[in-house]
């Protein structure tokens, strides 16, 4: 386990996005507040008191979904909960990423720790134990409709806590859950009334993926400003349009931040100064993909801010059905519906695709001799013999086309389930899955723009770039990028650039020159 991240405490207060990322991505340890354990015990007593009640209570003495009218005798209620988990662990397809599974387990534990679900204390402790042992249940790609919670993904996690199904241990080895729990000294849980529902009735998979995407996009949008600035510089564009007084005429906060970043990255650029005099530069305006960068990147930032607001509300929620209220009632509700999360997952995919599309357009300008202001066609060493970055732009275009397709919202779809009891669903899990692919796609598109712009900047020698863009070029060179030259195997260079962005090294290099970007 990674000890470099502080322990995350789960309890009466909400988690933060940083907490989710620390546990999901960096293996921070998890602890449950003593006050939360006391509230868990209190609400469990309320559920226990209803077990013999002659009045039916959903999920305690009844079946589930369309079978809610079926009364379950006392002696069959343990089997009822066990059967629920086994039958709902019906996912299919490739394994979901480890960090996603850890995020959804943490978020389910967070709801359990509110005391609003009525689970046993031992059940909540088991979730913390699995997370701390690095045991990751195998969750499959397909199975959640994003309503009644992320049922199948959460059921696979609950199944592992029962000592059934498959998991991967801390080293990544696939093994039966019973063996992994035994090796870690974790006792499998035994479910009682209502617990099966409590373990699967949440939007945790959607929310976990939203938290991870928000974290990634916070940095990626800064990187997008950096690569855009590199393109403006390498294409002999102007930074005058990024002036604060011009941006203030349209006072969107994200636009102002993006423009400020672009100005900071381009500051003190000899390349820019080489054509600042109107007498030597007759172009009045740059193309939209250069001039309108703050408007597009800013709109994406403002969308991200809205997503962060929704995530904050959701992180403060206790999602279960039925729920144990603070005053002791057990009430049915619809809080498990994933619509609020699904909408922002879909919403983010739209500006993300557009940011990538604008990046690809800037790259294409570098390769067109008619538009690149004196650079060789395709930035090739010997055009005709060499193809330069011709096919690197094809790769960008293929990704952007994919991003446009997956920007089509999933949340407008609904397929009724459970014999029409669950007749409107959110498809939020599907929105989350496509957003993850979109984040990866944007990172790759920006990597190609960064490489292309670096090549264009290098071809402007002996003119020097700005300190910030020069830091990116230097980082690329120190990572093995040889700069302009004859045709060579480009795929490794692209993957290396993707890694430099993903690990934060590009942003770190720039901010050493500019200070923190907005």
Automatic annotation (TrEMBL):
Q: In which pathway does it act?
A: Amino-acid degradation; L-histidine degradation into L-glutamate; N-formimidoyl-L-glutamate from L-histidine: step 1/3
Q: So what does this thing catalyse?
A: L-histidine = trans-urocanate + NH4(+)
Specify where it is mainly localized. Answer: cytoplasm
Supply the alphabetized keyword list.
Histidine metabolism, Lyase
Q: Which GO terms describe its cellular component?
A: cytoplasm
Database matches in InterPro entries: Aromatic_Lyase, Fumarase/histidase_N, HutH, L-Aspartase-like, Phe/His_NH3-lyase_AS
Highest taxon of the lineage: Bacteria
Q: Which GO terms describe its molecular function?
A: histidine ammonia-lyase activity
Q: List the PROSITE patterns.
A: PAL_HISTIDASE
Please state the Enzyme Commission number of this protein. 4.3.1.3
Protein's cellular compartments: Cytoplasm
Annotated Pfam families: Lyase_aromatic (PF00221)
PANTHER family reported in the protein's UniProt record: HISTIDINE AMMONIA-LYASE (PTHR10362)
Q: Which family does it belong to?
A: Belongs to the PAL/histidase family.
Write down the NCBIfam families for this protein, in alphabetical order: hutH (TIGR01225), PRK09367.1 (NF006871)
Which protein, by its recorded name, is this? Histidine ammonia-lyase
Q: What is the lineage of its organism?
A: Bacteria, Bacillati, Actinomycetota, Actinomycetes, Micrococcales
């Amino acid at each position: 386990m990674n000890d470099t991240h502080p322990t995350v405490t789960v309890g009466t207060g909400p988690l933060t996005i940083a907490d989710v990322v620390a546990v999901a991505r960096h293996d921070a340890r998890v602890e449950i507040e003593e006050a939360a354990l006391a509230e868990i015990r209190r609400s469990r007593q309320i559920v226990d008191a209803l077990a013999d009640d002659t009045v039916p209570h959903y999920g305690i003495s009844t079946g589930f979904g369309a079978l809610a009218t079926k009364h379950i005798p006392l002696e069959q209620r343990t089997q009822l909960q066990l059967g629920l988990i086994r039958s709902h662990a019906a996912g299919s397809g490739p394994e979901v990423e480890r960090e996603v599974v850890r995020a959804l387990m943490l978020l389910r534990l967070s709801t359990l720790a509110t005391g609003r679900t009525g689970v046993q204390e031992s059940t909540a402790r088991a979730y913390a134990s699995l997370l701390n042992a690095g045991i990751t249940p195998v969750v499959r790609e397909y199975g959640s409709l994003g309503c009644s919670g992320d049922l199948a993904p959460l059921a696979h996690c609950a199944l592992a806590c029962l000592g059934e199904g498959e998991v991967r241990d801390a080293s990544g080895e696939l093994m039966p859950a019973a063996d992994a729990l035994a090796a870690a000294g974790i006792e499998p849980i035994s479910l009682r009334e209502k617990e099966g529902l409590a373990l699967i009735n949440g939007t945790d998979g959607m929310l976990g993926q939203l938290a991870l995407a928000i974290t990634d996009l916070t940095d990626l949008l800064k990187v997008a400003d950096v690569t855009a600035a590199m393109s403006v510089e390498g294409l002999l564009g102007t930074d005058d349009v990024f002036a604060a007084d011009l941006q203030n005429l349209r006072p969107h906060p994200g636009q102002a931040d993006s423009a400020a970043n672009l100005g900071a990255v381009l500051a003190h650029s000899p390349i820019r100064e080489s054509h600042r005099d109107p007498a030597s530069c007759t172009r009045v305006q740059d193309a939209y993909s250069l001039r309108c960068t703050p408007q597009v990147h800013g709109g994406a930032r403002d969308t991200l801010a809205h997503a962060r607001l929704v995530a904050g509300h959701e992180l403060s929620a206790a999602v279960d059905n039925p729920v144990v209220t603070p005053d002791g009632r057990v009430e049915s509700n619809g809080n498990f519906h994933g619509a609020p999360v699904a909408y922002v997952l879909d919403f983010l995919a739209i500006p993300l695709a557009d940011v990538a599309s604008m990046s690809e357009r800037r790259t294409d300008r570098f390769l067109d001799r008619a538009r690149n202001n004196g650079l060789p066609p395709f930035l090739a060493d010997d055009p005709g013999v060499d193809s330069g970055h011709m096919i690197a732009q094809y790769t960008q275009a293929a990704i952007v086309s994919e991003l446009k397709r997956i920007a089509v919202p999933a949340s407008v779809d609904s397929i009724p389930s459970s014999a029409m009891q669950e007749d409107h669903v959110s498809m939020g899990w599907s929105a989350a899955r496509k957003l993850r692919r979109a984040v990866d796609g944007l990172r790759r598109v920006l990597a190609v723009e960064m490489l292309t712009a670096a090549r264009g900047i290098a071809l402007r020698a002996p003119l020097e770039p700005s300190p910030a863009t020069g830091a990116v070029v230097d980082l690329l060179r120190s990572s093995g990028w040889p700069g302009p030259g004859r045709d060579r195997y480009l795929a490794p260079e692209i993957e290396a650039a993707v890694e430099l962005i993903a690990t934060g090294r590009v942003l770190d290099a720039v901010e050493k020159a500019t200070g923190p970007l907005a």
